[in-house]
């Protein structure tokens, strides 16, 4: 006779895996995606993305990306080259195979504050139509889904660097600023309407290319007004962003520039927006613009930012042939060319420097004048550029009688 197994000898019951809260899906092959080719992985760029930005998100040295792209695709780019939508950057093969191909969020989404939501309709500029959300207060996936009225997180959440293919569980506590992707159905909730009212950077940070407030308000703690404040009036000075050709092959790269202008007409719309007529410096007539817009900055009148483009003739007269030694340089350089630029993040007076021991242009470097404002780097103190804003020096207290 066979004795039945006692309870303590019985095999343990298999435990069911906790249910995941990530929906089904598959990897895509559009802007923001990493795709595999015979030569190795490639990243498909959105409009205006730079190799430096892509390298930072993927934790790969930008110089390595530039070298691989030149060898694999024959394109000679720079770290700050703004690329066309659909352009490919070559990436090194990962040490361990990816569970899922990575997805890079757009730059604007990476600059959100915790608790904010980013969404743009899919278009030809590389906006992918996804909804990116940054967690706060140790949110759990279940709490996020309840807040936005959806059943699960989008599959593309697994492709973000935060998860790298690991499925989060319903009760997992996510760190502040962890990014997830939500289904587009979340946009119908009241929470999505509130979360899309994102904090804005100041005018100086917007002109540098920032659209979110994480660097301006959280890291640098700027107290200046938002870039679209105050409400424009007649003769208000503005700068408006347009896509321009940066002089290289249009297939590879594009740039954006901020042009100076004045408001010469305005009319209020039914939705509260303003239809502006802007007269650009050096141009006749006016162009119709809309306020508020991410592409229109209200210039402050407190002297913190220039209200017009620098005079090229005066800049050449002042800086041409000046001796400069930038930080980190051992030898002195000579200014051999002076240009005026309105390109985003490359704005103002641009100096081309040549080392004094060089006789040709093979190793010339370009610098923004605003980055050479230290008096110690100029051979003659009178050539040191004026600071961005006038310094306020407190008067000493009167001596006691």
From TrEMBL:
Residues 1-12 have a biased composition (Basic and acidic residues). Residues 1-32 are annotated as: Disordered. This is Uncharacterized protein.
